[in-house]
Amino acid sequence: MDFIDFTDYAETLQQMSLEEIRAVLEVIQRASDSYIYIMDLDTDTYMVTRKMLIRFPFEDVVIENATPALQKIIYPSDYPSVKEDISRCASGEQEMHSMEYRWIDAAGKIVWIDCRGTVIKGAGGHRLLVGRVTELGKEAKADNITGLRKEVRFKLDTEELLRDRPETIRYMMRIGIDNFKEINEKEGVEAGDNVLRELADCIVASVDLRVDVYRLMADEFMLVDAMASSDKDARTVYEEIKGRVADMVRQKEYSCFYTISAGIIQDEFMGRSAEEILRLTEFALNEAKRNGRNQMAVFDVEVYNEYLKRLDIRRLMRQDINDNFRGFQVFYQPIVSTPEYQLIGAEALLRWNCEKYGNVSPAMFIPILEESGLIIPVGKYVLWQAAKICKKWRDILPGFHVHVNLSYVQMNKSDLLNDVDKCMKEVGIPPESLVLELTESGYIETDTRIMDLFKNLKEKNIDLALDDFGTGYSNMRYLKEIEAKTVKIDRSFVVQALQNEHDYSIIKHIIDMVHSLGSAVCMEGIEGEDELDKMMKTEPDMIQGYYFGKPSPAEQFEKKFLGIKDSP
Ligand code: C2E
Ligand code: MG
Ligand code: MG
Fold it and tell me: Can you give the pLDDT at residue 2?
């Protein structure tokens, strides 16, 4: 039943005593999910049905001092506006009362209600407000599973809060279940709904009444503390909820295990919108999950700006890729043999420049290309550039080979073998002129797909180099498994060896071991003569470092190292 219009019955009602009216209320009540009430505005008497007594803490069906009784039941911060609206009905300024606000139920929990009533003249000419109270939890504006208000409501309330009194906001906390998808998949949707209900209870029990709790989409909740008077700070609240959840999981004998993470924002509300706060808290929550879950993260504007910058860079790179790789360039760094220090090849190193950020370091943009999958087209571009230049330089230096870095994303998600094959055939270079560099991280020995790829490359006579050696696990078994022809020792490892004897002797032993497995060693990052002298005693087979040349564009490289003059 949506709205009972009693105006048509005004005359009949005028003939009836309050007792008779009350009896009618009980009859109507049976047919309604809402709670029917009458308020005598002249005598401040409130009449409710027996059903109402069960749900809300009214003392009797007839309440003689309605105002103080209602004040106890209406949520404190909503009370002033409700009072004002009802007094307008009492004074005859308005004929209807229609508001959504919060009541506190018999169990002390906050309940959103929609209260509507019409003013009519009743027995003895008294002004009566006759209407019904509907629990929004049973309607679409609140969530059916948890009984909490929904995201739509959060947005409306927050817009108001941000406009009227942003300075009172202590924090907004977004809570998410770490493994909700798994619960739904493994235990079923019903178990998932139970978890949501349990968590909602844990949250509501942990915050004081003045903190608003909303259910956002899926498994996420939002807590808004906009009462500077509440005594628990965000961390205390989070820890309390976490503790209750753990107790609950234990009590239920681990039938459904879950943990929760939270992201909070506690400053910087000024000038923001609800939408933006949803984004910022989502970011903080994701940070908490990225940091290992089961924890709370505080929104950090610097980290967020860095994240936005990465998104921007991704967007700009995508544009450039679609604009025929504008802004991308391949540089080449010489690789020399030992002990003659003769040029034998070069490593192709990608560069990217854009108007907005200038030259961006590969340490920044390569991971962005990887995360977005853009490394696949860009990797192909590098491969083709490198192959073409290699063909040109082999005419001058026949044994020359070019090293191209490969990302695990290219191996997992593109037809690398075919791409390499096609490129070599079309450009016309032999397989031995190409070395593919891979880093240790990103592959697992047991990944048969990748192991097959290595085998196929080997069969095609394409050599592999294991890059960044010394930065990860430096797994010798792995080295043997993939039969890398070359191991490239990372500069960071070399720097350590130059600084302390212990690391120096480790490098020495590693090089011996690599040799005994039949692979060659390329030492990276040699910058000065002293470094070269010291590291040469460890007997590397090749050197790549600023001492012999920094990465440079092809035209500079060929002028400097291959004696090719500018064409007239
Ligand atoms: P990497 O493959 O280990 O490349 C060697 C890095 O060490 C290069 O950094 C090079 O400039 C630097 N380097 C060489 N000698 C010295 C030295 O004497 N001193 C110092 N301080 N640095 C030296 P760069 O060009 O910044 O590249 C960084 C990383 O980005 C590369 O490390 C590689 O992992 C990745 N990368 C670069 N180009 C590509 C590419 O085309 N594809 C993929 N997947 N990754 C690439
Ligand atoms: Mg490399
Ligand atoms: Mg390297």
Answer: 44
pLDDT digits (tens, 9 = 90+) for 502-533: 999 999 999 999 999 999 999 999 999 999 99
Do 436 and 318 reside in the same domain of the chain? yes
Same domain membership, residue 380 and residue 292? no
- Residues 288-321 pLDDT 10s: 999 999 999 999 999 999 999 999 999 999 999 9
Chain segment 2-55, per-residue pLDDT in tens: 445 555 666 777 777 777 877 888 888 777 778 999 999 999 999 998 888 888
Q: Could you give the CA distance from residue 62 to residue 40 in angstroms, rounded to a whole number?
A: 11
Q: What's the rounded Cα separation, in Å, for the pair 302 and 379?
A: 31
Alpha-carbon span 332 to 309, nearest angstrom? 28
- Rounded Cα distance, 393 and 348, in Å: 13
Q: Which two tokens stand for residue 3?
A: 């709205």
Whether 175 and 197 have beta carbons less than 8 Å apart is answered as no
The DSSP H or E segment spanning 245 is helix 234-251
- The count of domains in the chain is 3
- 51 and 84 in a single domain? The answer is yes
Question: Is residue 548 within 8 Å of 336, Cβ to Cβ?
Answer: yes
Is the minimum distance from the CB of 350 to ligand 1 under 6 angstroms? yes
CA of 467 to the centre of ligand 3 (A): 5
Q: What is the pLDDT of residue 22?
A: 79
| Residue 243 within any structural domain of the chain | yes
Asked whether residue 73 falls in the same domain as residue 158, the answer is no
Residue ranges making up the domain that contains 221: 142-299
In angstroms, rounded to a whole number, what is the distance separating the alpha carbons of residues 64 and 557?
Answer: 96
Same domain (yes/no): 75, 44 = yes
The reply to whether 325 and 247 lie within a common domain is: no
Distance 406 CA to ligand 1 centre (A): 12
pTM, 2 dp: 0.73
Examine residue 258 and state whether it is found in any structural domain, yes or no.
yes
The position carrying tokens 């191996």 is 411
Do 132 and 146 belong to one domain? no
Does residue 551's CB lie within 6 angstroms of at least one atom of ligand 1?
Answer: yes
Closest C-alpha residue for ligand 1 atom 19: 525
**Backbone φ/ψ region at 223: left (φ over 0), alpha (ψ -120 to 50), beta:** beta
| Ligand 1 atom with minimal separation from the 488 CA | 3
Characterize 271-305 residue by residue with b for buried, 16 or more Cβ atoms within 10 angstroms of its Cβ, and e for exposed: eeebeebbebbbbbbbbbbeeeebbbbbbeeeebe
Residues 249 and 319 in one domain: no
Whether the upstream peptide bond of residue 339 has omega within 30° of 0, thus cis, is: yes
